[in-house]
Amino acid sequence: MKRTENPRAWWLVLPVLAVVAFSALIPLMTVVNYSVQDIFGPGQRVFVGAEWFREILHDERLHSAFARQLGFTASVLSIELPLGVAIALAMPTRGAGVSACLVILALPLLIPWNVVGTIWQIFGRADIGLGGAFVHALGIDYNYAQNPADAWLTLLVMDVWHWTSLVALLAYAGLRAIPEAYYQAAQIDGAGAFGVFHHIQLPRLRGVLTIALLLRLMDSFVIYTEPFVLTGGGPGNATTFLSQYLARMAVGQFDLGPAAAFSLIYFLVILALCFVFFTVLTAGEER
Fold first, then answer.
1. Distances, alpha carbon 37 to alpha carbons 54, 189, 287, in Å
2. In whole angstroms, what is the distance from residue 246 CA to residue 270 CA?
3. Cα–Cα distance measured from residue 140 to residue 109, given in angstroms and rounded to the nearest whole number
4. How far is residue 59 from each of residues 64, 65, 66, 111, 273, measured CA to CA in Å?
5. Which pLDDT belongs to residue 78?
6. Per-residue pLDDT tens for 73-117?
7. What's the CA gap between 130 and 285, in Å, rounded?
8. What is the 3-state secondary structure (H, E, C) of the chain?
């Protein structure tokens, strides 16, 4: 029987398109408009073309912030993805322990970002924080407010603590979706734990890990609240990432034209990175 399509169903999508246009497209076009103008005040602006884009692309501070951003994103991805998969593999598959593990893993994800920064700001202090006092008790001179390496390490550990649960929950859901027949066949073939993981679990987790990687890539590349609360971008500019650089330009200096140009470049960089990762990770599936 020939399948017929009802074009009237598209009318149901129109409200969603209207909301998206209002909440995303209109602000985006406003940013594009600002990026090609020099704004002096209400009703006072001059068209400057691509001048702000050239200025931003040749800004050394932006290059340094971009390098720090890439380093941070690469670090958290290289830690959180393997750690999340390892936690998912170690979780129980049945019984009351499943619910307990899921609730415990979900707790860090429920904490607001500014609260996470505040928690670790207090936790890392040597005078009132358990973490800072413990590190000092080991004889290590630790001060995230003055030492760039300590600040970077604290921010990295904080992000791993906050977001590894997301990867673990996604990986656990992917593992539970694997049919039991795969494990029975592996048992008949005499495959060990590594063989099961390499030939069954990891390939079946490819789609889930792709989603986890893209989510963590986008979120880590736009991180703002946690380092702002924890270190304020310091000491110096050690933890000043692209989002903080943009906020200082737009809010602190009120340079709306350069900030708009920078935000568009920022958006295109994230879009390009996500496209590259998605293309690479899904290339095998298409073949």
1. 13, 68, 47
2. 14
3. 30
4. 9, 10, 11, 36, 21
5. 94
6. 999 999 999 999 999 999 888 888 888 888 899 999 999 888 999
7. 47
8. CCCCCCHHHHHHCHHHHHHHHHHHHHHHHHHHHHHCEEEEECCEEEECCCHHHHHHHCCHHHHHHHHHHHHHHHHHHHHHHHHHHHHHHHCCCCCHHHHHHHHHHHHHHHCCHHHHHHHHHHHCCCCCCHHHHHHHHCCCCCCCCCCHHHHHHHHHHHHHHHHHHHHHHHHHHHHHCCCHHHHHHHHHHCCCHHHHHHHHHHHHCHHHHHHHHHHHHHHHHCCCHHHHHHCCCCCCCCCCCHHHHHHHHHHHCCCHHHHHHHHHHHHHHHHHHHHHHHHHHHHHHHC
Q: Which of 129, 127, 126, 109 is nearest to 118 (CA)?
A: 129
> Which stretches in the chain have pLDDT values below 70?
1-6, 41, 284-287
| Cβ atoms 244, 228 nearer than 8 A | yes
pLDDT at 3: 61
The full set of domains in the chain, from first to last, is: 14-47 (no CATH), 51-286 (1.10.3720.10)
Distance CA 155, CA 130 (A): 16
Q: Any idea which residue has 């900030």 for tokens?
A: 259
Q: CA 252 from chain center: how many Å?
A: 25
The per-residue pLDDT for 22 is 79
**pLDDT reported for residue 80:** 93
First to last CA, the chain: 32
pTM: 0.84
Cα dihedral across residues 254, 236, 68, 53: positive or negative:
positive
